[in-house]
């Protein structure tokens, strides 16, 4: 990718009179470790946005500098530091995972002259509590992603009691928070929560530990963890229906082989995208995404998130003529006021620079060519970070962690 | 024994009674119907028995991986920290072969073969030159594991692969263990994945095979002698290099075999190499180096600790295995079954 | 003997004149910190014969102490004590932790010491990852700011570089002096033949544990500097990867002289920073692994061993 950019720069330099100016944009994603596949899809999303403007913004060529992390917060800060302090980027798009976002936000506070735009990190507190003035999130957080699912599970699916299985770190805390906020309010009960430590691969005991008398199991695992759990659940002959977190039924899991497909069919979920969305902007985005190398049949939510955030970045840069020499003040002002149409509807920012956007309620079905896809059931329009609840009341609910919220 | 001596039971008899009582308690816990207070205390019978069985079957897998490590460690004092990479390589190759040929068993054989070949190459080309310098061998194996992990990432990317088991290994079997009695009096029996029981059976068979091989054959005698006293062995005229190569190849082959078997139950992804390496280290340290029964006992202890810890101490259970290792090393450094070092 | 040291000292002092801010902190300061960590390992391994993979854990104890007793932005713990109290407390806790680890490991030798310290490091890693009340689990504690003295933030490139340089020189001098002191000589004698020393009447265990405590002080100081550099600490900082990194640095540099760890740190930090630009973002780990392999293969004593082998040859007069 870097070589193509260099070649592009070189040829542009030959054709145009004198050397063309370039603007460096850093892209930080998980290119190492267990989330590598997700990071690569995020990059595809970002490149889709870059290709959309022909690789140029405000008359300058775009040079993408990649930063690699492995989903741990330390590695994300290290990569961000390298991009900012060694490669000299003044605009950085990323990171991918929840805890990384929290760490990069904190780093952003030490670098007021650099503009940070989120990738796909979706922990609540990145923008809800103690936000950074130069960190912008044009995507929604993990709790927003669950909007509508709790009510749907209680009223339409008829699940009165649900057990929770999730990994023990901040992003699942946020997702469970979002699900339970609605589900408990509707009258549902969550008798047990299984917080699986990071690094666990053998879910057999967790599966045996789940109570038999629940109506469904809410699974907030992603990537390899979801594949493991679902496969072992199927092997153990589990019969309870599932409710999926946003990354549990993501394309990276749905394209896995094996009999876990049987367990997945019919699972409701919610998130920022829906595979069977048939609106024209979404279809156009899918077509553009599929021209990228190694693309999935349908873009994952990581590709979508990086696309939206990169598009916002480019729009902001265009508005200020690519000028970040003032420490990004003009750019940040432009970004704060940005409101535009994405493939998934209108996006605008709230006072904490977090997105207000549409959320999609989905269910897993078998698609036309045999692949599993998330079928769109309902659109929940313009969800904000406090899920429609009064901000003071929402903050009083407390930080999402293992014990909060609780409704047994 | 004169009449003046006090009659009593010896220490050995005392421990025997305790062991019998423990075994009886375990049998009752597994086969009897639980009263309500016990179900409240231990979550549920299903959780308890499943944790036990999961621990048992997981220890089978750990034994397969660790047996190769303990042989290599015991005989050649070589801390091969690339052992986990051999596991992962066997898993990937097994996946490729199994998915292309459609036969799982051929994939298993391929995993074993790849492990053997790579292990042989490592021993002959690399470790033989560094004989005697333990620290350097360790460091070289670290370097090899770093490079190997990255190259495997290049070939197979970060995706998670499921090795598909054949139909006759799938599904859950009903065990003769009563899980719960429903209010109308019908008995609900425990269901357990068949494949995991097969893994346990395979581990037992291979364990017995290894033990027989070590204790009843001439080659085994030579290996055991080498574990006890390497210098004496070469002084007595045995081609020590050939023995080392054989043992390394066997140990690495076992790792590759375990990779395919483990990868079918739990999936294959980058990071598995570090995980199984650390587990092998702990199992071998706790059990005692160079000892197959030691590896079995170590694997049993660690597997059970991990699964029971996951169910009953979910937050801190994951550190339990390493705490066991620290305690063992501090109290009895040669391991539970280890002889003199 | 002092001429090379004087030249080196001069070069290090004027380094800021030619180096950019990035080189000052990311290469200069960072190498000095990792050099100190590797130095604490070298003290134990080179003079004591005990290879420890738990030095990063000791540094982590100091780092987490700074986060817990000082100020942090995560809202977990953070008692807000002034840095003049926090730093000595952190280093003292690190020394105690190191002595404790040493006491546990004192009955082991060789490979077993490596394993038990690796187990301690991994157990600590998992504990900090799982505990939410004190350590905030996987997210760790962030918002750790270096102190501001007389209006100058110690995290600014120039002050930070000199701070690390000062700490490194102090530990280097301490180790060099200590190696020739009575304690140092006793320790080396214990390394060579513990039974004889015990027979002569020395308390072998006490000497070893004390050596661990001293190494813990160096690692503790490095740990404090590390969290001031990063501004955060999390379980990832003290994981297995970091522990092995310290070993790699110490071995690449050479375990026979205290300058070795710092040499190794410079080489490894340069490699890790620029490998991504040489072979691209994809395969830089392979490059690092291969370089490490070749150094270990060619020279059993790292770069210092290579130097010792070739330097005499270079000083010989050529035959006419």
Write the layout of secondary structure elements.
The complex is a heterotrimer of chains A (408), B (341) and C (320).
Chain A: H1 2-15, E1 22-30, H2 36-52, E2 56-57, E3 60-69, H3 73-86, E4 91-93, H4 98-109, E5 115-117, E6 135-136, H5 142-145, H6 149-156, E7 162-167, H7 170-186, E8 193-196, H8 204-209, E9 216-220, H9 223-235, E10 242-244, H10 251-254, H11 260-264, E11 268-271, H12 280-290, H13 301-319, H14 329-336, E12 339-342, E13 345-349, E14 355-366, E15 372-383, H15 391-396
Parallel strand pairs in A: 1-3, 1-4, 4-5, 5-6, 7-8, 7-9, 9-10
Antiparallel strand pairs in A: 2-3, 11-14, 12-13, 13-14, 14-15
Chain B: H1 11-31, H2 36-41, H3 45-76, H4 83-101, H5 104-126, H6 134-156, E1 172-181, E2 187-193, H7 194-216, H8 218-228, H9 230-235, H10 240-265, H11 272-287, H12 292-312, H13 320-331
Helix pairs in contact in B: 3-7, 3-8, 3-10, 3-11, 3-12, 4-5, 4-6, 4-10, 4-11, 5-10, 7-8, 11-12, 11-13
Chain C: H1 2-18, H2 21-47, H3 55-69, H4 83-105, H5 110-130, E1 141-142, E2 148-149, E3 152-153, H6 157-180, H7 182-192, H8 194-200, H9 204-230, E4 232-233, H10 240-253, H11 259-278, H12 284-298, H13 302-315
Antiparallel strand pairs in C: 1-4, 2-3
Helix pairs in contact in C: 2-6, 2-9, 2-10, 2-11, 3-4, 3-9, 4-9, 6-9, 7-8, 7-9, 10-11, 11-12
Explained architecture:
The complex is a heterotrimer of chains A (408), B (341) and C (320). Chain A is α/β, with parallel strands linked by helices. Chain A folds into 2 domains: 220 residues, Response regulator (Rossmann fold); 171 residues, Rossmann fold, CATH 3.40.50. In chain A, 39% of the residues lie in helices and 21% in strands. Chain A contains 15 helices and 15 strands. In chain A, the strands form 3 sheets. A 6-stranded mixed β-sheet of chain A has the order 2-3-1-4-5-6, with helices on both faces. In chain A, helix 13 crosses helix 14. The longest helix of chain A is centred in the C-terminal third of the chain and has 19 residues. About 4% of the residues of chain A have low confidence. Chain B has a single domain, classed as ABC transporter involved in vitamin B12 uptake, BtuC, CATH 1.10.3470. Chain B has a two-stranded antiparallel sheet. The longest helix of chain B has 32 residues. The two termini of chain C are 30 Å apart. In chain C, the strands form 2 sheets. Chain C has a two-stranded antiparallel sheet. Chain C is globular, with a radius of gyration of 20 Å. By secondary structure, chain C is mainly alpha-helical. Chain C is built from 13 helices and 4 strands. Helix content of chain C is 73%, strand content 2%. Chain C has a single domain, classed as ABC transporter involved in vitamin B12 uptake, BtuC. The chains are: A alpha/beta (408), B mainly alpha (341), C mainly alpha (320). Chains A and B meet through helix 2, strand 8, helix 8 and helix 9 of A and helix 3, strand 2 and helix 12 of B.
């Amino acid at each position: 990718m870097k070589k193509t950019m260099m070649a592009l720069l070189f040829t542009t330099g030959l054709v145009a009179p004198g050397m063309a100016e370039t603007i460096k944009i850093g892209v930080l994603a998980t290119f190492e470790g267990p989330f590598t596949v997700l990071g690569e899809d995020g990059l595809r999303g970002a490149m889709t946005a870059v290709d959309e403007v022909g690789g140029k913004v405000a008359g300058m060529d775009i040079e993408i500098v990649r930063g690699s992390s492995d989903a741990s917060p330390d590695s994300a800060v290290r990569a961000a530091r390298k991009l900012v302090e060694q490669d000299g980027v003044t605009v950085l798009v990323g990171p991918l995972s929840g805890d990384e976002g929290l760490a990069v936000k904190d780093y952003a506070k030490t670098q007021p002259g650099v503009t940070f735009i989120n990738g796909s990190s979706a922990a609540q507190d990145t923008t809800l509590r103690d936000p950074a003035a130069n960190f912008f999130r044009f995507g929604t957080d993990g709790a927003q992603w669950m909007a509508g699912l709790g009510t749907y599970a209680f009223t339409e699916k008829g699940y009165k009691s649900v057990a929770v299985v999730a990994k023990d770190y901040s992003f699942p805390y946020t997702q469970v928070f979002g699900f339970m906020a609605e589900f408990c309010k509707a009258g549902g009960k969550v008798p047990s929560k299984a917080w699986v430590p990071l690094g666990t691969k053998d879910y057999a005991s967790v599966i045996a530990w789940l109570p038999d008398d629940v109506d469904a199991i809410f699974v907030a695992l992603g990537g390899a963890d979801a594949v493991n759990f679902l496969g072992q659940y199927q092997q153990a002959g589990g019969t309870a229906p599932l409710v999926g977190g946003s990354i549990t039924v993501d394309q990276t899991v749905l394209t896995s082989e094996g009999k876990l497909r049987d367990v997945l069919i019919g699972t409701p979920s919610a998130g920022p995208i829906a595979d069977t969305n048939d609106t024209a902007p979404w279809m156009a985005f899918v077509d553009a995404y599929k021209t990228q190398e190694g693309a999935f049949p349908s873009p994952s939510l990581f590709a979508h998130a990086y696309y939206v955030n990169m598009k916002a970045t480019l729009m902001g840069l265009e508005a200020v003529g690519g000028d970040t020499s003032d420490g990004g003040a003009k750019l940040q002002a432009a970004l704060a006021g940005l409101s535009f149409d994405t493939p998934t509807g209108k996006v605008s920012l709230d006072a904490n620079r977090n997105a207000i956007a549409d959320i999609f309620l989905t269910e897993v079905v078998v698609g036309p060519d045999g692949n599993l896809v998330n079928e769109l059931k309902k659109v929940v329009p313009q969800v904000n970070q406090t899920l429609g609840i009064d901000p003071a009341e929402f903050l009083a609910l407390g930080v999402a962690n293992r014990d909060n919220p609780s409704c047994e | 024994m004169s009449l003046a001596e006090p009659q009593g039971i010896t220490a050995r008899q005392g421990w025997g009674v305790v062991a019998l009582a423990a075994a009886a308690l375990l049998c009752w816990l597994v086969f009897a119907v639980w009263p309500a207070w016990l179900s409240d205390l231990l979550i549920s019978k299903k959780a308890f028995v499943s944790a036990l069985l999961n621990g048992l079957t997981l220890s089978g897998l750990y034994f397969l991986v660790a047996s190769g490590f303990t042989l290599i460690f015991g005989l050649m004092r070589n801390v091969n920290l690339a052992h986990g990479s051999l596991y992962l390589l066997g898993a990937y190759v097994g996946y490729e072969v199994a998915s292309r040929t459609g036969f799982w068993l051929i994939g298993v054989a391929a995993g074993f073969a790849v492990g053997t070949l790579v292990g042989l190459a490592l021993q002959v080309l690399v470790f033989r030159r560094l004989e005697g310098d333990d620290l350097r061998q360790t460091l070289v194996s670290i370097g090899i594991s770093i490079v190997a992990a990255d190259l495997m990432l290049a070939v197979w990317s970060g995706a998670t692969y499921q090795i598909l088991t054949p139909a006759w290994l799938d599904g859950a079997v009903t065990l003769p263990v009563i899980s719960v009695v429903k209010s109308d009096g019908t008995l609900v029996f425990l269901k357990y994945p068949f494949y995991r029981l097969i893994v346990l059976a395979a581990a037992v068979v291979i364990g017995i095979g290894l033990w027989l091989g070590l204790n009843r054959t001439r080659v085994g005698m030579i290996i055991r002698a080498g574990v006890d006293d390497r210098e004496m062995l070469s002084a007595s005229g045995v081609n020590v290099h050939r023995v080392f190569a054989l043992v390394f190849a066997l140990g690495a082959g076992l790792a590759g075999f375990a990779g395919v078997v483990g990868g079918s139950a739990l999936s294959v992804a980058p990071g598995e190499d570090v995980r199984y390496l650390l587990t092998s280290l702990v199992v071998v340290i706790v059990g005692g180096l160079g000892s197959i029964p030691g590896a079995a006992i170590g694997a049993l202890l660690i597997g059970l600790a991990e699964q029971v810890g996951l169910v009953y101490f979910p937050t801190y259970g994951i550190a339990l295995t390493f705490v066991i290792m620290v305690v063992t090393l501090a109290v009895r450094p040669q391991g539970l079954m280890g002889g003199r070092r | 003997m002092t001429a090379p040291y004087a030249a080196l000292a001069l070069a290090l002092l004027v380094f800021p004149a030619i180096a950019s801010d990035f080189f000052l902190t990311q290469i200069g300061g960072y190498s000095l910190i990792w050099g100190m960590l590797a130095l604490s390992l070298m003290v134990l391994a080179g003079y004591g014969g005990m290879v420890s993979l738990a030095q990063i854990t000791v540094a982590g104890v100091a780092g987490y102490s700074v986060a817990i007793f000082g100020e942090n932005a995560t809202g977990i713990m953070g008692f807000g004590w002034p840095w003049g109290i926090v730093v000595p407390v952190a280093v003292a806790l690190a020394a105690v932790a190191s002595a404790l680890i040493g006491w546990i490991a004192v009955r082991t030798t060789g490979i077993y010491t490596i394993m038990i310290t690796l187990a301690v490091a991994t157990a600590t890693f998992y504990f900090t990852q799982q505990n939410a009340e004190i350590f905030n689990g996987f997210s760790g504690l962030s918002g750790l700011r270096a102190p501001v003295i007389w209006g100058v933030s110690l995290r600014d490139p120039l002050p930070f570089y000199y701070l690390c340089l000062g700490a490194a020189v102090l530990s280097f001098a301490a180790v060099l002096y200590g190696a020739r002191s009575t304690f140092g000589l006793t320790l080396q004698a214990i390394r060579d033949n513990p039974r004889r020393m015990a027979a002569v009447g020395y308390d072998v265990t006490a000497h070893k544990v004390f050596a661990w405590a001293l190494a813990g002080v160096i690692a503790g100081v490095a740990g404090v500097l590390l969290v001031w550099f990063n501004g955060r600490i999390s379980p990832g900082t003290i994981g297995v990867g970091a522990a092995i990194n310290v070993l790699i640095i110490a071995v690449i540099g050479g375990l026979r002289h205290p300058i070795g760890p710092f040499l190794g740190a410079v080489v490894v930090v340069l490699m890790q920073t620029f490998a991504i630009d040489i072979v691209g973002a994809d395969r830089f780990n392979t490059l690092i692994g291969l370089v490490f392999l070749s150094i270990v293969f060619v020279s059993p004593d790292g770069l210092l061993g290579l130097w010792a082998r070739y330097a005499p040859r270079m000083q010989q007069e050529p035959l006419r």
